[in-house]
Amino acid sequence: MGLVVQKYGGSSVADAEGIKRVAKRIVEAKQKGNQVVAVVSAMGDTTDELIDLAEQVSPMPAGRELDMLLTAGERISMALLAMAIKNLGHEAQSFTGSQAGVITDSVHNKARIIDVTPGRIRTSVDEGNIAIVAGFQGVSQDSKDITTLGRGGSDTTAVALAAALDADVCEIYTDVDGVFTADPRVVKKARKIDWISFEDMLELAASGSKVLLHRCVEYARRYNIPIHVRSSFSGLQGTWVSSEPINQGDKQVEQALISGVAHDTSEAKVTVVGVPDKPGEAAAIFRAIADAEINIDMVVQNVSAASTGLTDISFTLPKTEGRKAIDALEKAKTAIGFDSLRYDDQIGKISLVGAGMKTNPGVTADFFTALSDAGVNIELISTSEIRISVVTRKDDVNEAVRAVHTAFGLDSDSDEAVVYGGTGR
Length: 425
What we know:
Shape: globular
Number of helices: 12
Oligomer: single chain
Largest sheet: 8 strands, mixed
Helix content: 25-40%
């Protein structure tokens, strides 16, 4: 008997019919002889609706109370799903994140998991029940307050539970048939990937691919938990994410030269103008950003002007953190000594990801040629061993993604990419 952890996103449990369809799929896994733990998100757009409601009541809702409000969405899903499973003749028990033993730090709205102590879950499945766990939430180790893990946190909940329970696999059910070579809403001829390494999936997730959350993949790699990304709307084989290539039937699935093209339009660019070109200035800038608890992505420093001894430093960050970053830098302006700040939220990032580029010197040239032929201007460039990212104008992103996807031979012969629920999660 194996132990399977399944996660269902909001589009999969968006309504009563969706919940009944998910219940049937879970029961089928149980009937195959597996112990099953299911992690669920809030129904459809429930979380967004609750956030809108909170902002109508208070322009700046307190983090603790916002977490109390938002976790209600997953509690609704888990209870309804348990009812639907019982209606099919199987025993199910629902658990909140805290009841499931998901222990986090005390940072409200974006807590990180410290530990998972799934004693109640283990007891429940050992007694023959199907355990239903509310995703996206936990309990603070210090304050014992309810916390949330940030958007997409149900993926992380599922993988963390799979690791703690020593599960055979963690199945992430979404509204697409797996991980594709590009966002199927942008590239109609995107191809489904049969297998992808943790490293490539981490780069795709960090670069804007919305199918899996970066923290979820990071957790899976750390504990070597295979992830199977598939659709709850079809019975098709999905995408396997693991450390080693896998066998699907008699076919050995190997790593492709290029895994895919990701894009992200949720970032903004801050340019610190007129920074004295001397040791310690960059450190002071990014210390101010770090103290404001802001994560940054790409960083570029211009060559210093010989006549003035001044330089410009640009970096990208989430749009939602833009105002906070500007305020933090303005407070440190006198100490740092820069001239001014520029803020631009009309940018987009395009990333090419693939382990094969480490041994193929032509990838970089082909990437920039494709962008040039599409008439796309580049503002920032960042690279790693298996990724090249550029920042362009937001309006150019979709055309750039399609051009790069075609240039690297990633287009499918048919429009096989289907987004069943409309969100790509």
